[in-house]
Amino acid sequence: MEQFIRILAILLSSILVNNYVLSRFLGICPFLGVSKKVPTAMGMGMAVTFVMALASLITWLVQYYILEPLGVGYMQTIAFILVIAALVQLVEMILQKSSPALYQSLGVYLPLITTNCAVLGVAILNITEQYNLLETVINGVGAALGFTLAIVLFAGIRERMELNPAPYKALDGFPIALISASLMSVAFMGFSGLAIG
Amino acid sequence: MFEPVLWSIIVLGGLGAAFGIMLGAANKKFHVDKDERIEQVRELLPGANCGGCGYPGCDGLASAIVESGAEITSCAPLSKDNAVKIGEVMGITVGDVVPKVARIMCLGSEGNCANKFEYDGAKDCRAAYAAASGFKACRFACLGLGTCAKVCKFGAIEMGEDGIAFIDEEKCTGCGRCVEQCPQSSIAVLERNVDVYAGCTNIDKGKAVTQNCTAGCIGCGICAKACPFEAITMENNLPVVDTEKCRSCWICVEKCPRNCMLTTKPDKIAFIDEENCIGCTLCKKACPFGAIEGELKEKHRVTEQCRGCGLCVEKCKKDAVHLIQKDTLPS
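Output (structure tokens, whole complex):
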């Protein structure tokens, strides 16, 4: 039971309280770049979920079965980048062969994730928080769901902003998008009072 | 003391090599054969991703052409040369590509067509249409909020100051993206050689139109009656021009009591080269406007009645009649 509550706490924390985009400010690049339309934001979110869960799992294994036994734990960052990049490539190839439909819908977004710092951030934070394997995967999935939530909500806002002119012409486009992203971030701060377990 | 350095090199090198081999093997195992013609066709398409063909971008159309035999001509911005080249890649012959252009079919600017209520919502025609089918008195009128200009991938549409869109013919490729997004159907894609069209899409008759707009077509049919070539027929209270019969005399443009027949080409006039003219009167007989003067065996002259239809040019056996632009008349 205690374990279950702990997992629930990790999940809620990574989705809402410590949302990787809006509280930790990781993965801002795709958050701003791929959030013009809700369907594309959804596609990006799905692809990130897929990769983040896998990357969390594999980087944890690499950390505890390769880096630590050999005493090179400080190589974490560079080794993780390598793992994530290779993983994305591999996933892309497998998808293209085994599931063309999924590849079509995720296709464009997968290579973009290689450089998504949220993925690397999750992998490193998993180690610093000293999660076990199950908690690591849960945290990875939660972080990705939080990312999806943020980017889809933001895309919904941007779709509406597209139709209406900004108060000043100079604010049109990216400036107003950045302002609304910051307001969203403020709104998500409201979850910080949420304490579980 | 070099041990940690050595280990870091070994670990990173090892990981790199392992992933490299793994990816290499995966690439072999999961290799997907791609038709290389798709790439070739894709190169020849314009690459604007306008979506006018109905496929998701140029990549979508390229694979549709190769794999499911989509029409090459479904790409409107495609140049004729490239269409032929794609035909060569596919081993088929391409039919004629008729260049097209989008035309604004509405004259209901602010002065001509009143607003039926004050609209203060999102600056987008589609949003405005959702509120009681738009704020213009005429239910067919251009709403002028610039959705067409926004969706145009070629920057060919600008919003005029009178609240009606304006199309830059040079830039327009006739892809039809604007037509799809216009909630009022105020834009239509016409063939480029159509040089006269009605600037109105209101299918109502007479009074229903005049109440709302001072420029709308009332379906009176004067243009159809005035046309000497019977190129205009009335359908749904709007004139339809048969391009094969139309000879660009534009008597319809002049006769229209509402000034809503529009033309885009410069006015032309016949000019008789007196050196070649033998006074056979063939041109005089052919002219539907009685615009050619001169008796048999006299040099003929073109009067101001001429509308540049070009019938006389076809009839003249001595190649003495030419069509020239009206303002470049040689003295």
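The first helix of chain A runs from residue 2 to 17.
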